[in-house]
Amino acid sequence: MNARLWTTIVLAGAGTFAMRASFLAAAHRLADVPAPVRRVLRQIPPAALAALVLPAILVRDGRVELLAARPVAGLLAFVVAWRTRNVALTLAVGMVALVVLEHL
Amino acid sequence: MTDGATPGTSLRAHARAGALDILPMLVGVVPFGLVAGAAPAAAGFGLAGALGFSTIVFAGASQLAATGVLADGGTAVVAVLAACTINLRMVLYSASLAPYLAATSRRSRFAVAYLLTDQAYAVSIRRWAGERPGHDPPGRARERLAFYLGAGLTLWVAWQLSTVAGALVGRAVPDDVPLTFAVPLVFLVLLVPTLTSRPARVSAGVGGGAAVAAAGLGAGPLSVMVGAVLGIVAGALVDGDDPEPGPAGGPPDGGGPS
Questions:
Q1: What is the per-residue pLDDT across B87-118, written as a single tens digit (0 to 9) for each?
Q2: How far apart are the CA of B194 and the nearest CA of chain A, in angstroms?
Q3: What is the pLDDT of chain A when averaged over all its residues?
Q4: Which residues in chain B touch residue A10, judged by CB atoms under 8 angstroms apart?
Q5: Residue ranges per domain, chain B?
Q6: CB–CB of B139/B177 below 8 Å?
Q7: Which of A13, B64, B177, B215 is the most exposed place for a label (fewest CB within 10 A)?
Q8: Strand A59-60 versus strand A63-64 pairing type
Q9: Closest Cβ–Cβ partner in A12, A38, A94 for B83
């Protein structure tokens, strides 16, 4: 038994669960949300998704790169996503573009 | 939407819809799960350690970060802090989903919390955008719960299976097949339809820009949280009062066509 490993797993699991449960646990008090809170809550999807997507496409090994395979493939995928909103097609175009660009 | 169906069948249909919605995301999740299984095994923590991370923590990037700290000889405290910092964004998802599930039992909401991931959050908030949880028809919250659990459990099973595979056979996917690029691409498809109003575009622009800047300055995985919070603040500042009561938490707020 590796004490350091299992201490980490259990505490990281507990901390992560606490963060996941934070607002959900109190949700019965949130059914009718006042307007100012609603104004904050509705920013979460665009802000969080953009913060998740852009660094994954534009930053590699801690460096911002704009003229590389990933950003260009990402831009192509964005155009497809914008026009079609189709997950499979966006994935296909983005992945093929990346593989092609990386092997040029 | 579910008119005429008996409650049981209808809930099952909602669960199936959730599972189907999250299915395309597995293209990015499975290779990530293989790595999350292979890394602890390579560090000498075995299949048990890999599965311990995947079932108890169940959050990919933080599992890899904690494994990395331990493999480098770091203490449990540092590993736990690394993992929890990366998962801070879960607080935002929790707040965003809470109004939609307020009418479900607390025990159900704890299950929702355990299964909360980027993917389960993203498909659910897309599905529920535009709904007004304060004015639900009876039973709507349970349908949302069924949808969410269908999506969340599908991802959970895929994550555990790919963890086991990764721990047993190592990273089966060669490094030059960039399957992990599928992860941001899928979130890109989910991001686009949220950009329906000026405040939403400000949130996304500031959020994405700040996250890139933070990552470029060495914030690592924490950059997601930094970007998201700055984006939310910026969007909320330019967001006016509702012209009429708008949907809580959902992206479309009655702004003009994009």
A1: 999 999 999 999 999 999 999 999 999 999 99
A2: 6
A3: 91
A4: 56
A5: 7-178, 195-258
A6: no
A7: B177
A8: antiparallel
A9: A12
